[in-house]
Amino acid sequence: MPYHEFECSTCIPERKKHAVIKGPGEDLTSALPEGYLNTIPGSITERGCAYCGAKHVIGTPMKDVIHLSHGPVGCTYDTWQTKRYISDNDNFQLKYTYASDMKEKHIVFGAEKMLKQNIIEAFKAFPEIKRMTLYQTCASALIGDDINAVAQEVMDEMPEVDIFVCNSPGFRGPSQSGGHHTINIAWIKDKVGTIEPKITGDYVINYVGEYNIQGDEVIMQDYFKRMGIQVLSTFTGNGSYDDLRAMHGAHLNVLECARSAEYICNELRVRYGIPRLDIDGFGFEPLAQSLRKVGLFFGIEDRAQKIIEEETARWKPELDWYKERLMGKKVCLWPGGSKLWHWAHVIHEEMGLDVVSVYTKFGHQQDMEKGIARCEEGALAIDDPNELESVEAMLKLKPDIIFTGKRPGEVAKKIRVPYLNAHAYHNGPYKGYEGWVRFARDIYNAIYSPIHQLSFLDISKDEIPTNQGFATQQMLSDTTLPEEVVSSREMRQYTGNYDCIPDYLNKTYPYMQKTPASEN
What we know:
Among the domains are: 50-190, Nitrogenase molybdenum iron protein domain (Rossmann fold), CATH 3.40.50; 204-309, 3-Layer(aba) Sandwich (Rossmann fold), CATH 3.40.50.1980. Helices cover 43% and strands 12% of the residues. The protein has 23 helices and 14 strands.
């Protein structure tokens, strides 16, 4: 078994089974790290909780809903506006967040009366919004507040409103993935089938596991519309509460993120006989295959092929331009769940990037299995790494860039590794043909950024220079480089000196420092 033990985690021997190195000729059964288990005490996990998975990932993208958390205000703020789930109703769900604001006295005496008052107050503050999702948190779950009863009481008194209750406190599962499961099942159990669908076309789908990050859903909606397909509902990006209650009327469930939303697809198949078809909106070839599959299901393959040919002809030359300049660059692919395997193979094939590491915070065994299968030999696969392990991996692997979330991304910048936000994007959307070129552009700009090159200059012990901007001027006027590299569009590639670590990191991670900073 090719386990990898981090030096920083030798005091936690259980962590050894959560990291492996993909060796030559190994099958997946011998190269899988353990995953989706309870966090090992002492490892200081950076996972999200089950409440976060329910509210932040699945619930909040619904656009015409008051999202109210019954618990301390900190839970609500932690899951507010950290992803760019945009919508066409002026981003209502991003502008406002709601909490019952439980305090110590409510833990002692209960908070159901206060919760009811808050629900009514929220509806009165926004009279045009008639729908609400009510989320349970650890605090209110532990004291036993019956939020279902409170919600029903409000609906009896205000028949024009509808409230969905999600009982997913933070401790319900090892990670946020537990919250994905909970809200999926609760929605189909309590809300699907309570409104009849409005069918306007011959080909009707639910677009599931799509959260409209910076407009991803709009890109895919355009393709479906050009194929003559009606999207009955989107679960849940830019999705309408009432449209999602009518999911049972679709002919096909088209699933994008299998990690967060396969549960509701499987239940729709069991309860209503709606088949499930998994697609991939990232990358030219995966997207082409996905559109062909949807077209084949409805017998309209010619419409799909027309879109593929038009979009490929328009965007492929630009993608090839970036591929030529990104060839051989090393990337750590450290996203959430499904992007681990949505991106692993295609960024290598279509952009020339070499994946040297994959990790997931909340993915299951099958996510890691697909991700490892699609990345290159020698890649380091890690389940639920902490900050120290992430830093050690970067210093060992020396990647040119990492794709991850904002928290580990900020850590990467401290050791001069550029990063792109794999969760909320830098300049998305990234889906679709144009989106994939936009992703390549962001990668290129991050790696070749002159500002990033300047970060390798250690001026901590120098006097303040009198010629301001001297380093930038020298870089721009370097005549020894090829003209193309010095041009305004393409700056020279940085030369990463990973041994040149700031003093405060030397003190924090002394075992990682092979060469004293003073000798560099």
